[in-house]
Amino acid sequence: MPFVFTREPGGTQLGEELRRLLIDPLGRLSPQAETLILSASRAELCDKVIEPALAEGRLVVCDRFWDATLAYQGFGRGLPIQTLLDITMFATQRLEPDITFLLDVSVKLSRERLRSRSALPDRLEAEPSAFHERVADGYRRLAAAAPQRFIVVDGTRSQDEIAIEIRDAVMARWQSSRP
Question: Burial level of 160, CB count in 10 A (0-12/13-18/19+)?
Fold first, then answer.
């Protein structure tokens, strides 16, 4: 199969253990500890899953990657962006995504969708709307700063429409990069 699908945090045995700590609704972590736990999970994912898949010529699709740290811990939590970027580049051995999709929706709609799920919100989902507004603004700023990498997708459309747009963009980019 030419595709490898991952998720963050998680994707490895260690990553899944760290994920449980990070999303525990009763957990209390400092922003710095949160960042370092996420970075440990990401380092393990890069080493054990992403780098080997790329070496085999496979396409890697991540449900979140390091832009999430800049958005959540940087813009959301107020940690210094450059410090986060330095930690992230160390954890990933400078690995950068070729394409990043930003599914852009209002915080209000996002919260409505969250409430419609049967599961209890995790620790980050339970943060107040002001936090999520800062995160959404952060993602938009990251997208504006790297338009060659980011593709902003209207997340208010149906799942099928979004999936088709993303599939078409991935295939176009992948085919244009092949010899």
Answer: exposed
Give the pTM: 0.91
Q: How far is CA 50 from CA 20, 47, 54, 59, 174, in A?
A: 21, 7, 6, 9, 16
User: Minimal CA–CA distance to 106: which of 75, 136, 140?
Assistant: 136
Give the rounded distance of the alpha carbon of 107 from its chain centre. Answer: 17
- Give Cα 119 distance to the centre of its chain: 20
Q: Which residues contact 73 (CB under 8 A, 6 or more apart)?
A: 31, 34, 35, 38, 79, 84
Q: Which two tokens stand for residue 7?
A: 């998720």
Token pair 């449900």 is found at 63
Residue in the block written with tokens 């992948």? 174
Q: What is the pLDDT along the chain (179 residues), one digit of tens a residue?
A: 688 999 999 999 999 999 999 999 888 999 999 999 999 999 999 999 999 999 999 989 999 999 999 999 999 999 999 999 999 999 999 999 999 999 999 999 999 888 888 778 889 988 999 999 999 999 999 999 999 999 999 999 999 999 999 999 988 887 787 66
What 3-state class would DSSP assign to 67? helix
